[in-house]
Specification:
Largest sheet: 7 strands, mixed
Shape: globular
Number of strands: 12
Number of helices: 19
Number of domains: 5
Distance between the termini: 47 Å
Radius of gyration: 30 Å
Structural class: alpha+beta
């Protein structure tokens, strides 16, 4: 029979696997503080080439369909704390009386660099809107809006769909267009009414700084719809790219600029309040997860301290070497520290990885050694002993040569940094070892660990593939633009979404921006690594061997004789 804790943990794992992304998006929505955007008219000539290249293919399509450029608008992000700028090119078709808005999408995870929404206005002041790939993210609309979304793969199909969508009974199409001031007023009016509609169903509320979402069933449905729509539309775009036998130069350039935009967003530093929030949320989730495992308050406190000491080692090493945007957060199976540095020496990476487990091992050894001759230093409850053992075990496990543990990353840095095939093979072998360990240990934490690593297998292969391609190119192509150029032109990546390509580019840049380790570092680094890795293995082997001999010596004489006779008279193999 399962215990209550084991059953709860099993249910928790199932919920995470089924609803993990929805839960994550739900938490993000709760974190968002948003506001009304500030729309302003700008001179098109002031736009940088990067933005113009993003919207150019869509604009050329609109012009081919009889649309005429009217106004360029810019607005800030609706998310408070996000300084990203958005741009909208407003077009009007005087024959069909259709308004088109080409909007850039400069945020991480965007599936398109820019998209088009179509609107038809009626004499009644109502409006018909056709969007693409976003309806599941719109829980409700203002009363004057008829909204449609067909999840189509091209701007032409979406435009044709809009011409059908707008044929609404008793509605007469208005032939008026907007002035420059009028389009700004309309955009402000429209966004305000969408927020009011959200408030009317209890999904958002007003605050002193703007708005924020309210925890509710409606918000959960919104998060679920957002994930569902994202997956659905990404699949459509993947099929579109896979089915294209040839991409135009403008399509390629637009996609390349979309990837570059997402890379710029990834490189922007996170605010301190953002880091503090995610540290707190991840810590609470970590404690909740291990509470289901049945850990006591003392065990939980010691585990958190051990992990914090480990991550502080990484953190301080990063800060010492000049890494920026460093932060610590917890995971279901541990914790992690991240930081950024454009150019890194292999020595710096090596020290950063070693600086996590090394302090915990030394502290654990120090406590145990101190106890040998000075037992009065130890507390009566045994907390210090428990901490020492836990610190040694956890940090030593982290030194094992398995990716993505620190030991595995150390080996990658020293031996596999410029060997992409070797890196991928190491990833596969590590996954295999973890699967075997999961089956043997029957540990739900290992299950989550294996699942997450399994999800990354495809991307690891793509990264290895791209690094192999780059190794055959000129050194001048081993930069951000060269990487993006391959991602948008090579058919091997045609199934990848824009967001996936941006993540691949980020990981490849990390490898290329890390210097090649010197022979001295390889030899010295491996010696130091083995110095800490090998002794516990020897101790464990000797202990098992000693225990085995001890058990044999305690056997009755007749059993010893039987074992000896069996071993000498009947060899365990056939010659």
């Amino acid at each position: 029979m399962f215990t209550f804790g084991e059953l709860s943990l099993f249910i928790f794992v199932l919920v995470v696997l089924r609803y993990g992304l929805t839960l994550f998006q739900f938490i993000i929505f709760l974190y968002y503080k948003f506001r009304l955007p500030n729309y302003i008219v700008i001179d098109r000539d002031t736009l940088d080439k990067h933005t113009l290249d993003v919207i150019k293919p869509l604009e050329e399509f609109l012009i081919s369909e009889g649309f005429v450029f009217h106004t360029m608008i810019a607005h800030d992000s609706v998310i408070i704390g996000n300084e990203q700028k958005f741009h909208i090119a407003y077009y009007y078709n005087p024959v069909n009386n259709v308004h088109a808005f080409v909007e850039t999408r400069p945020f991480r995870g965007a599936l398109e660099a820019a998209n088009i929404s179509y609107e038809t206005f009626y004499v009644s002041k109502n409006v018909c809107t056709t969007i693409n790939g976003e309806i599941d993210s719109v829980p409700t609309t203002p009363k004057y809006v008829y909204i449609f979304d067909h999840y189509l793969s091209s701007s032409k199909e979406s435009y044709k769909a809009h011409l059908n969508d707008r044929n609404i009974e008793n509605e007469v199409v208005s032939k008026e267009t907007f002035t420059q001031d009028g389009i700004v007023d309309y955009k402000n009016y429209d966004y305000y009414n969408y927020i009011e509609a959200f408030k009317s169903i209890g999904i958002a509320k007003s605050t002193e700084y703007g708005y924020r979402f309210v925890p509710s069933l409606a918000l959960w449905k919104l998060a679920s719809g957002y994930i569902k729509g994202y997956k659905k539309f990404s699949k459509i775009l993947q099929n579109k790219q896979q089915g294209q036998t040839e991409q135009t130069l403008d399509d390629t350039q637009s996609q390349a600029n979309g990837i570059l935009t997402q890379l710029e967003v990834m490189e922007k530093p996170k605010g301190e309040s953002n880091k503090t929030l995610w540290f707190s949320i991840s810590l609470v989730a970590f404690i909740a997860f291990f509470t289901l495992l049945g850990l006591s308050i003392v065990d939980m406190a010691l585990l958190v301290i051990v992990l914090l000491v480990h991550e502080l080692g990484h953190y301080l090493a990063m800060r010492f070497f000049g890494y920026t945007d460093t932060s610590i957060f917890f995971l279901p199976f541990g914790a992690a520290t991240i930081g950024k540095k454009e150019r890194r020496r292999a020595f710096e990476e090596y020290i950063v990885f070693l600086a996590g487990p090394l302090p915990g091992i030394l502290i654990g050894i120090g406590i145990i050694v101190s106890n040998i001759g000075y037992s009065d230093l130890m507390d009566e409850e045994g907390y210090l002993q428990m901490y020492a053992v836990m610190s040694l075990v956890i940090n030593y496990i982290n030194l094992l040569p398995i990716y993505p543990l620190d030991g595995g990353r150390i080996l990658q840095t020293l031996l596999l940094l410029r060997h992409p095939k070797g890196q991928f093979l190491f990833y596969v072998v590590s996954l295999g070892i973890l699967i075997v360990a999961m089956i043997w240990m029957q540990d739900p934490i290992m299950l989550i660990f294996v699942v997450l690593l399994g999800f990354g297998l495809k991307q690891s292969y793509r990264i290895s593939q791209l690094l192999q391609t780059l190794s055959k190119r000129e050194h001048s192509e081993m930069n951000k633009e060269g990487i993006v150029n391959i991602l948008v032109k090579d058919e091997n990546y045609s199934k990848e979404t824009l967001a996936s390509k941006a993540n691949i580019a980020k990981q490849v840049l990390h490898v290329l921006q890390t210097g090649k380790p010197s022979k001295v570092l390889v030899v010295f680094g491996l010696c130091v690594y083995l110095l800490f890795l090998t002794p516990p293995l020897i101790v464990a082997f000797v202990g098992i061997h000693t225990m085995s001999n001890s058990e044999y010596s305690q056997l009755a004489p007749e059993k010893k004789e039987k074992l000896t006779t069996h071993s000498t008279d009947k060899p365990p193999y056939k010659e």
